[in-house]
Queue: 3 jobs
Job 1
Amino acid sequence: QVSAALREGGVSPTELCQRCLSLIKSTKFLNAYITVAEETALKQAEESEKRYRSGQPLGVLDGIPVAVKDNFNTAGIETTCASNMLKGYISPYNATVVQKLLDQGAVLLGKTNLDEFAMGSGSTDGVFGPVRNPWSYSRQYKEKSVSKSHSEDEESNWVITGGSSGGSAAAVSSFTCFAALGSDTGGSTRNPAAHCGVVGLKPTYGLISRHGLIPLVNSMDVPGILTRCVDDAAVVLGLLAGHDPKDSTTIQDDFKPFELPNLPDVSKLSIGIPKEYQAPGLSSEILGLWSKAADLFKNAGAKVIEVSLPHTCYSIVCYHVLCTAEVASNMARFDGLEYGHRSDMNKSTESMYAATRREGFNDVVRGRILSGNYFLLKQNYENYFIKAQKVRRLIANDFLKVFRSGIDILLTPTTLSDPVPYTEFIKEDNRTRSAQDDILTQAVNLAGLPAINVPTALSERGLPVGLQFIGRSFQEKQLLTVAKWFEKQVKFPIIQLEEVKSHVQDVFQHRKSASFS
Amino acid sequence: QEVTVEVLAHLEHLALVDFRDAEGVERLRKAIRFADLLQVVNTEGVEPMDSVLEDRCLYLREDDVTEGNCTKELMKNAREKVEEYFVAPPGNIPLLKLEEQETFLQGS
């Protein structure tokens, strides 16, 4: 819709850019952005405006403000991964996905906040502080919370965004941009998408290039797409997917961008409900929503079948071993010599490296490096690392079996509950939290499948809850079609934020939701 | 099995990251106990999986130089440099021999 407005001249790219920039300023308390690239964004907007005036926009994304998670390299713009290790690091190049966005004329507003090096499920463990969920300040949440004094509770009651792409999710949710890039290794795009009430797409591993995405787990990382509606996600996917010679883990098959049907038909589909996803700790509210969703499909004529993914309960442990092992390897590059933080200790190379890494990494990162190294020791390699790789195959095979038996799409919850208040979240340490929260999203990364979070409803506390659809490898079109149908059925409400109202009103007078396609 | 002081020291040396305090060591112990849960899974006859794309051929491009010559750009991010060299402190000095070592283990 915004794209159409830009084309018709209803609003200009520079106006749009300025509005988003000022909205970012007035929502600074959310702490969603680490770096705001004001000057370059305005320049990009001006270039875009010239193109529109001469009737030659580059495409749907021309002039659209976007944000990128701060673990993607962006030329000339600081890339920190929310860590002291990379504070002040100015990337010399653009990640492939960032370059693709820029080539389409998108306006890069800035880099969003995350958990340090994308390790965590709350976006609370970065050096720039935690990200606040915009819904904490929504009328919907405030109405439902029993408060003694208005201002006192706002300060202590704010809820987390989920993670680790919390900044990106918050940015999209609070209308400061129209699409954002996140990354998904264990659920890091879908989890905050569910908590912030936005669409979070994890594409199939190998579909989108990871070149320029600072790696966490090479065999599971993918760039994630966060938007306000499924159609937008399909558009962005169409622009980002495809083979990249700079990333040899991208498949070579031709990718054809697709448009989703306006009136999707789900009556010929088989929807699988994996019983193991009724995990301990799943809130009864979400269980109810999941069940209602299944009924929606049944009533539309689809076959809804209970299925089993028996090794689901081992996915967290398997992930834990493989993740820490890969992290131990990936973090080895940070030694202070070529880039990033460097300690003043200079007695020897090794002591400089050790001091640099002690100063640069937080406890979570250091803990994972040490655990990973333990599992990779000669005496442990077979029993831990290789064992985990075998379990990974069992988990991936579980999914294959289910899809081969005729199931098209799996329907599961995305999170165990609605977003919790920050004060409650920090009572448990990062590893425990990740182990609890990732259980519904993480097996998907082990199997490399595509999955999407679709915002479904508001909880009793007035906070967003989403449901997850999992598809077959490289069948994003089918996955997104089902997601779009579901989105139309549930009609998830728009966030009512004071700051947003004035900025958004004039551009979107008659529209119910603000999307750009 | 018990995680011995030797193993801890070895890990610190390999990882070039220290545990800092008892909490760090406890965290490792918890991580190992957690990972031990994998032992109950029957993986008889199962091949380890390296990548979900194992059925495909890896892409190899032609051995042609397509980019480079960006020395100045790359040197910008290094703190200690001389001409086109990264400057490192003296090498070949093992970590543990140094008196300045400040690990938790040294104190115990």
Note: Confidence is low (pLDDT under 50) at residues 506-514 of chain A.
Job 2
Amino acid sequence: MPAVSKGDGMRGLAVFISDIRNCKSKEAEIKRINKELANIRSKFKGDKALDGYSKKKYVCKLLFIFLLGHDIDFGHMEAVNLLSSNKYTEKQIGYLFISVLVNSNSELIRLINNAIKNDLSSRNPTFMCLALHCIANVGSREMAEAFAGEIPRILVAGDTMDSVKQSAALCLLRLYKTSPDLVLMGEWTSRVVHLLNDQHMGVVTAAISLITCLSQKNPDEFKTCVSLAVSRLSRIVSSASTDLQDYTYYFVPAPWLSCKLLRLLQCYPPPEDGAVKGRLVECLETILNKAQEPPKSKKVQHSNAKNAILFEAISLIIHYDSEPNLLVRACNQLGQFLQHRETNLRYLALESMCTLASSEFSHEAVKTHIETVINALKTERDVSVRQRAADLLYAMCDRSNAKQIVAEMLSYLETADYSIREEMVLKVAILAEKYAVDYSWYVDTILNLIRIAGDYVSEEVWYRVIQIVINRDDVQGYAAKTVFEALQAPACHENMVKVGGYILGEFGNLIAGDPRSSPLVQFNLLHSKFHLCSVPTRALLLSAYIKFINLFPETKSTIQEVLRSDSQIRNSDVELQQRAVEYLKLSSIASTDVLATVLEEMPPFPERESSILAKLKKKKGPGAVSVNELEEGKREGGELNGGGGERGGDNSTIAASNASTPSPSADLLGLRTGPQVSAAPPSAGSLLVDVFSEAGVNDDGFLRDLEPPTESSDSLLAEGPGDSDSAPPSAVSEDAAPPLPESNELLNKFVCKNNGVLFENQLLQIGIKSEYRQNLGRMYLFYGNKTSVQFVTFTTTVSCPGELHPQLNVQAKPVEPLIEGGAQVQQVINIECLGDFCEAPLLNIKFRYGGALQNLSLKLPVTINKFFQPTEMASHDFFQRWKQLSQPQQEAQKIFKASHAMDTEVIKAKLLGLGMALLENVDPNPENFVCAGVIQTKAQQVGSLLRLEPNAQAQMYRLTLRSSKDTVSKRLCELLAEQF
Amino acid sequence: MMRFLLLFSRQGKLRLQKWFTVLSDRDKRKIIRDLTQMVLSRPPKACNFLPWRDLKIVYRRYASLYFCCGLEQDDNELLTLDILHRYVELLDQYFGNVCELDIIFNFEKAYFILDEFVIGGEVQETSKASVAKSIEEAESLQEVRQ
């Protein structure tokens, strides 16, 4: 019978678990749990000292309750007590409880660490392993601080037992992953590498995980592991299946170790030493050969282990991408798997072939499997396998097979799972464009896409087809004819109407010769769809109509009548109404020449990388695209929109729309570029629009809390306000006073907010309200006289000292020279950021109060972060971008003590106030915060990424900034370190 | 490395949860909910692997219990099936003809055995005999309660 019968079974626990299992309802369960919790609590609080067994039993019950999903808020101390028990099972339960329920109680952490320390130095291998498992399970920074120095020593010491070495290696790996800065290599590097030679296979298996991780981070220091790994691999591969005794798994010698060795080698380029390389190639060939041998066992474990090694070897071959012979053999092997009866192998073969398809050596070999892959797409029962097949078809596509693949993907799309449709659509659109030999095929394909899966055709896709049609005059007639035919369908997707409206508006004349598609027929066809469409599409159609008037004067009266109808000219949607009114006027007043000029054919679009590609990369995540490329795509979207502005018929708006609509979601056809477009894009938020309009801000309520209490004037004179930091009135020179000592602190207050009280003394209160957009800012200063006596000759000057001058352009509007007692005046300051900066502009204020000159200087809270534009990005993009900014000077880091309570919501609010986008679900550790943004200066844009790692136990933060410009990282880091 | 290992029954009852990275309770609950739903709704004989977020999910059913784990992109799926199988073998060796009830009533043992086999999401010892020996040695240290 099993070891459970040995007598350590806890009867009370078993009874409790039975009770819980017998509960008929959630309520009954909760009741039973509460009863048990009360019982345990009273036992823990009772006067009678509990023996170790009872303590163990109760702690174990608490653990069970916690694992059921209930909160546990006591018992930690009892668990910690168990750690110092000398009975193994008690200690074990204590450690398990700590591992599962570790909390941030710093007092306990100290006790836990003490217990661990004792066990580590106990020289009892079983206790040492328990302690190491606990460190690895918790893996917190405190643990790293306490033990990162000790564990390497245990790992390489000559007298350490093998089982302890194994635990130590993986424990160290865990600490290295959480706190790489605390795990210092160096002196023990070479001894760790030599663990690859250890006699004990288990030690090698554990150590190699550590070595692989370290090699990824420090390839040079660990490169001696390559030859060791190759010789170890070679010994395993050439050993008979019985040589390795217990490390043989279902007749496969050491599959775990083999895979890990092959994985380690993927951290490095092919070995330079010819002999080593030869040996490795031999190994890889042997592995490929073994795949052809008959299986030694029918068990699935045997084939899994054997194929695990084979796939890992193929990964290495693909990684090297330099041995044509091996690549082709790998491809053939995968080809066999494509038809294997095991679904798992088909799935992995499809996945692996995707990477092979991008190698020049094996691309052709991969292509030979096209029929099998198409068949997989059609017949696989498992959606995840079909998805892999679609990925592979995409990867193997080239000019020679594009038509076949696109056709297959299109037909699959009709029945494809909803979850993958959008991605499929993007892929088809990209392939169609990339491999289009004749563009009529391209147009057909995209129109088919819209027909089959219109809902999944994103804006990028239909923008792109229009872009291409505009740019290529050989396809324009065909496109017009095809959309005309497609629009005949009684129910066609709105995206089809958009494409149709645009193309007929531009090129309808090319098919107007045919009486079946005469101008009026075209118009009536389009207009029959009008009422079923959304506002943006209707706006687009109105633009098409005015283009028709230019192209076909004979349609003028019909169209004018449509425009003149109440449903247009009095449409409740302002955009539609405006278009109707303007187009009507334009068509009736403008001469033919003017009409022809304004409504001329669209100019060609600049050739760029397809924005669809960028979108696909973004969707796919792993597939790699830099943020730069994405932004490229966005800019392109913006230009499309700007170009489309000409359709609006009002030339004066074009410049404005070009300059001010960088939004990627803006539409191709300039639907929002009617004359009402101001400099502010609609997305900028109404508040900003107000601020930047001439009306300015007159927020009455704003200074309500700044109103001076009238009684306060009594005490004023005695205090001699302002005198504290400037000389007595008579001695005050006309020079500006130096900034107040506290002005840096005041500045820090406004890093994460834009409004509030900047300064206050007994006389004066200065309120501030500011708004920023792109590289521009506007600040309102409110000077409140707290006394009952007027301030005279009130003057303010704003200056940019020293290096700040060329970076920041600050203009202050003059302010009223007289402030009555109890009154306030407002001053407007315009700010333009020309380049990145560190200092803050100075505000000097002088006035006479009761004859005495007051002179004070403050720093205006204009900091570089005010010019942030938030940037949303996915996890993958974030870390890719993070890695790109890896030069040491691009990073600034600070570790500092929390000066405020570490409240998540407060931290979030501050980070949002900073102006960057707070990215959720990006950092693998949910406690951490990451942000991204672009600082807009006139000279350049500086992309910045931020990571803030709070450590609640230590009440510390680690803040890391990475920017494309070193001064920016440094400055942001300085500013932010004061905020938390 | 393996990010987590979950054991749940056909009814979706969680029997064991092991997390190899730090996650908030909320995230853990979400992962558990999403994965039990996803895995339980898959047809029989479907592939044992599926992509999920940035992870590869590998799962396998043993009798009434599903063993399911999340892997990083460069982990080997087939080898992970072997890890799951070896874990089942270790449980079987310890309990003797292991069944779901053994894991319910001796959940702490299931955690201990896992700790002997996998640390921090990496395999530390693949030899069945070695793991058994560690457990044996440890058990011999305990005092038998009368």
Note: The radius of gyration of chain A is 36 Å.
Job 3
Amino acid sequence: MFHFHAQNLFQLEEEEEEEEEDKFDIFVSVKDPEKIGETTLPMFRNKTFTVRRRFSDFLGLYEKLSEKHGPNGFIVPPPPEKSLLGMTKVKVGKEDSSSTDFVERRRGALERYLQRVVNHPSLLQDPDVREFLEREELPRAVSTQALSGAGFLKMINKATDAVSKMTIKMNESDVWFEEKLQEVESADQQFRKLHALVESLVVHRKELSLNTASFAKSAAMLGSAEDNTALSRALSQLAEVEDKMEQLHQEQAANDTFTFAEMIADYIRLLGAVRGSFDHRMKAWQRWQDAQSMLQKKRETEAKLLWANKPDKLQLAKEEIAEWEAKVTQYERDFERVSATVRKEVIRFEREKTKNCKRQIIKYLECLLQSQQQLIKYWEAFLPEAKAIA
Amino acid sequence: MMAFSSLRSVSVDLNHDASLLIDIPDALCERDKVKFTVHTKTTLSSFQKPDFSVPRQHEDFIWLHDTLVETEDYAGLIIPPAPPKPDFDSPREKMHKLGEGEATMTKEEYTKMKQELEAEYLAVFKKTVQVHEIFLQRLSSHPVLSKDRNFQIFLEYDQDLSVRRKNAKEMFGGFFKNMVKSADEVLISGVKEVDDFFEQEKTFLLDYYSKIKDSTAKAEKMTRAHKNIADDYIHISATLNSLAADDMTANKNLNIILSLQKVEGRVASDQDLKLTELLRYYMRDIQAAKDLLYRRARALADYENSNKALDKARLKSKDIPQAEEHQRQCLQKFDKLSESGKKELTSFKGRRVVAFRKNFIEMAELEIKHAKNSVTLLQGCIELLKSN
């Protein structure tokens, strides 16, 4: 039972946030994770459990995780957007088929989102994650407005602006990061293009499905008008085959959507998160640089004071220098730690991506294969009917 | 400029009378004009040579068709439908769009799209050659029409026909054709039928025509959707190619998407030829049969009018012999039309059934062949991906 206002949400947001939030009756079952390394993860109370969560709960979880772990350079998996930003609306066909699609897409995206979170060894340790998975009732997440599609995009854009401004200033030891960022940016471009193309494929396949159904009806009519008995039969058999073909095309469109298009949409979001981690690294670097310039200023002040012979102020200056020296050391260490994390995370991301992509593509091709095998059966059944025409 | 050779006619079983064999072995496409090479092999003494070829344009075929339609003696025959004008609009428009979008595509994508368009161009070309060839073969296999003088001129005259065509146009003025178009439905349904056979035929043909017209349109839409999918695959594989630089799996997938695209493209064009073209051809043929019914209905109307005129003449006791002669002629014409029309419509049925059978069998066999091809491709690719 879905209580759902997808597109209306935007208007409702402002005035009715408290009341009309969409409520998902999604049952996410998570089994007790396998032993990772040596830890047995006794932190989960039961082996299998189900909870009910609202869409805003997912967004709330993401916000918490990204606040806590993002600055450390972790790639925090993002959930699907609040609105359909970035996804072309497929309005071919009846109204309900388009919204059923949307609901299924969202459900799948949320499931994969959670799966990625629990697959991440560090994130799994986070108590907020455990709470999300286990606790009966979650308090309503406030201020998830930042994660509406537009807000999300704004965040990413700000990050990329910052990155592009700073890239020039970084030194050569960061060549790996520079190259990686470029790769990520070009991949993002290609994925967006690919997504649009696959959505176009879906539209055309749905069109084909409609046109096939329409032709099937027409062929049946023609068959009933035909006065040669055998030909009349063959025509109505042809109509039946085309009806079956329509079904195949529908299934194929679903395959295109859920196995192919959605996978690409996932990666577009993830690439955004990757760029976010680069941004956090930049911020850490900037903080270190700022501390260094501040230290420099303090030293200059001290030098001036030495000349002016003001012992109290001099003492203060010396204290400040010590303070900033400590900060510089700290921030440098932070930066190195964050860089190391980002590096590890990116490598992990790429490995996971390859694995997932391969799995999805096999799934997609297997569905195509099944479809073609069915097709052969249908036409082989029709052939004797055609030969029987006399 | 595109040259093309060797094509077997698909729609109907023709050309088995060895005394007059016609084919279009090749054609040239120059900008907008298609030049067909009409090749004749004959044992008939009425022709000057036993084996010869002439170049002909689409307009020459139309001229021939129109002169046949406008010949009184053939009023009782189903005149084979005129071949439609070669229509390269669709591929030409796409080629234009492709040129405009060239900057946004990779070189491979552009090349692939261009290849696809050239294949589409070639498919349109094949279709138009086929349909012009069938027109001539229908004539050559008809006992009466094959002897037509203009037909012989069309086949043999080794100068440019366009001069002769212009003169003919002046003679007939194309008036008859316009009349047929507007009046036939009303007249056919309005006339009181005396003959059961024709009554049934009339009902059948009118109904069948509207249904086959609908089926043709729907089949066309199906084919177009298939082509769109094939085109999408091209763009998708090109984009995967760009991603493939950093991803080994994508590289392998690229090939399969390209192959699937080719198959999808073949499915589309075969469906077009076997199904859509078949329906389209018989839609036009049924129109030709309806034209026959129209002419007969007109002859019946003329006869009825001549009866009325005779009655009037008898009343007035004036010009009776002329009226009687006119009535006799009308009756004779009507009877001749009915007799010949019956024969024509009966053989038309047989022809239609044979053609549908042939094309349905071929269509099913091609669908199976393409699907088996896809299955092999997919199985191979899945194997490869799983083994890595």
Note: The longest strand of chain B covers residues 20-30.
